Amino acid sequence: MVHQQRKDPLEGATVDGRYVVQSRLARGGMSTVYLATDRRLDRRVALKVLYPHLADQPGFIDRFEQEAKSAARLSHPHVVGVLDQGVDEINGQAVAYLVMEFVQGRTLRDLLREHGRLTPRHALVLLDAVVEGLAAAHDAGLVHRDVKPENVLLSDTGQVKIADFGLARAVSATTGTATLVGTVAYLSPELVLGKPAEAQSDIYSTGIMLFELLTGKQPFTGETPIQVAIQHAQSDVPAPSVLLPGLPEDIDELVQWCTSRDPEDRPVNGAALLGELRHISAVLTDEELDFAPADAPGPRPVQNTLTSAVVPRISVDEPDDDGYRTEALPRTGFADDARVEAPAPGGATEAFPRTMQDDNSTSVIGRDHNATRVIGTMPAAPPSFGRPHGTPAAAASSQAVSSPTDTTRIGRPGSHESASWTDGDVGWYDGHTEQDAPEAGRDNTGRDGGERPGGARTAGSTARPLSKRQQSRQAQRPQKSLHGRAARRWVRVLVALLIMLAALVAIASWFFGAGPAGVVSLPDVADVPLEQARAALDEQGLASLTTEEVFNEQVLAGLVIATDPVASSEVRRFEPVELIVSKGPELFDVPDLLGRTAVEAAVELGSAGLALGGVEEEYNEEVTAGDVFRQTPEKGAERRRDSTVDVVVSLGPAPIAVPDVAGLTEQEAVSALEQAGLEAVVVEVKEYSRTVPAGSVISQAPTAVEVQRGTPVTLTLSRGPRSVKVPNVFSLPEDRAVAALEAAGFVVQVDYTFGSAVLGLVARQSPTGDQPEGTTVRITVT
């Protein structure tokens, strides 16, 4: 059986007495687009007619007119111009229409279907025109809200234009806040979450469109629109190079900048995006712009960003924050943490300290006291040792080094060692000035006085010559007695010092061996109960123990997770050791999701440390369509982090099959519809019917379909048959009489006088006069 395609009722109609509809071009989610002719200006235009249910919404016409006026004020080469707007009535149905310039060509979607994906050069050129049009709209205060390839028109002359400004905004104002108006694949996260649209919303959709132009695929897909919307709200758009390795990094950054989930992290408007877009087009090479692999390989592995880190250089002679100058030291073969010798400001040599001990690193070996030292030129006058007690001797001798080739100072590092010269000799006093030296003023023979044998006075000595009286007293003292007392005194002091030194060595050995400063290897107590772990550490002599309890998904509550420092580390017994103990897995309360949309439920679960699981849809007579009416597990249950919660979303009341009430009386038809949960609407104008009695239903609309509860069903009642005057067919031939009666709407019954026609003329007819249409008229033929 051949079915003839139903003709569009608007084809051939004239809208508002001016626009003659020629043919239907396309149908979308909100409107149908026709090719029409403007009779007044004799030009072709695109006539966009919104679906009737939108025009019936309260306040829609005013809102639609306001948005159309705003869009009409926008004049730009890359924006489809709005020429007219209005509402007309055709065949008793309100028709809200928008007249736009007709662009002969195709859409960007058609181009994608033909090529699959575009090269970066081609994609950036097309996007440049789109963004330029958006920039002009944003400057005028307009937000598109529905940027997608279907709304980008490519003319046969090479022009790129974006269409449908203001239409999504006008429609959304009539559908309520719970409805998302736009294409779900390109919706920005803020629109999914019910927030108002801004210029950044168009930027997000443009970024999704660029992703699709480059890869031939949309970043988010799902079995239901809810699943796609949730991904926009919860997931980041991947870089295009994940699907198409080899794309320039600048393009990846551009897509991810435009598609950031936070509007504040995107370009502020189309003008900002346009500048960056043109900059990228200018800096990319021809090879990068024409990148087009033969096939799309799988996703590339995640790159380790640490391998490409750039270490900034510190320029030489550049002052630091503290006012000092940073100098770059040449590498000389030392390890990075070894001590390096560098020139000091005074010309001497200083050793920079090591920052970390490394057994394998190169280091500067400490000075050997037995090594040969180069001593600088002797001073013209011997240095004086008559300084106050306690003054470091090294300070007085710091200028003794004068040779530029010296590698050590005179005096051992870290001590108060000083030099004295006696007639050209060099001697050392460890940490003492001359006043501190025992038996000051005594020469090397044991005799008092400040002169050496031969009459030479000790250079630099401050001892005064003895008076005659002092010399006489000293001469009376026995020489042996003086030497014996001094020897015994020094022996006792030496023994005491040796005993003290031995005691210190013993104490140090114990302290750094078996004592608190002894080094032990920290035992591994992971997965061990806390008390057993404490006992194991006590056996090692570790007394400074602390604990910290943390949640852990793998380790049972009460068991040790790890130690700080880690196991097998060498620590001293007095150092603190922290035991990290598990509190078990952290549990989160399941929030109440009833009455929320699936997107709102996903956001709330994410805030509670959980995740949205399966989303099912069922009919529900009491819950509004789109809202959650059942969840598993229920509110208040405790679950681990990232556990999933399944929800069931209402589809609204279940659809009802419209009963067939044709032929029933008005009362019977109304009762049948109300019992089915539908609303009966009886048309006041009745129609004639030869077959349906007066007062019964001739027709209904809709019929034989499933509709939502409460849907109105229109009933048309019968007025019964029409009253028609019976034509006079007396003496007419039989065939002409039958034709005349049937044409008048009667049923003809033929009787013959002689059993068959002889003359063939009508001799009698019954009834006559005015009769109901469809009445049987009998004729007698002779």
Automatic annotation (TrEMBL):
Keywords: ATP-binding, Kinase, Membrane, Nucleotide-binding, Serine/threonine-protein kinase, Transferase, Transmembrane, Transmembrane helix
Record Pfam families: PASTA, Pkinase
Compositional bias (Basic and acidic residues): 431-451
Glycosyltransferase listed as a keyword: no
Gene3D superfamilies referenced in this protein's UniProt entry, alphabetically: 3.30.10.20, Phosphorylase Kinase, domain 1 (3.30.200.20), Transferase(Phosphotransferase) domain 1 (1.10.510.10)
Ranges of residues in domain PASTA: 515-583, 584-651, 652-719, 720-782
Highest taxon listed in the record's lineage: Bacteria
Low complexity bias: start-end ranges: 393-403
EC numbers: 2.7.11.1
Catalytic activity: L-threonyl-[protein] + ATP = O-phospho-L-threonyl-[protein] + ADP + H(+); L-seryl-[protein] + ATP = O-phospho-L-seryl-[protein] + ADP + H(+)
Region named Disordered: 334-483
Span of domain Protein kinase: 19-282
TM ranges: 490-512
Gene Ontology annotations of biological process type: negative regulation of fatty acid biosynthetic process
Molecular function terms from GO: ATP binding; protein serine/threonine kinase activity
InterPro entries listed in its UniProt record: Kinase-like_dom_sf, PASTA_dom, Prot_kinase_dom, Ser/Thr_kinase_AS
Record-linked SMART domains: PASTA (SM00740), S_TKc (SM00220)
PANTHER family, A to Z: MITOGEN-ACTIVATED PROTEIN KINASE KINASE KINASE 20-RELATED, SERINE_THREONINE-PROTEIN KINASE YBDM-RELATED
Name recorded for this polypeptide: non-specific serine/threonine protein kinase
Organism: Arthrobacter cheniae
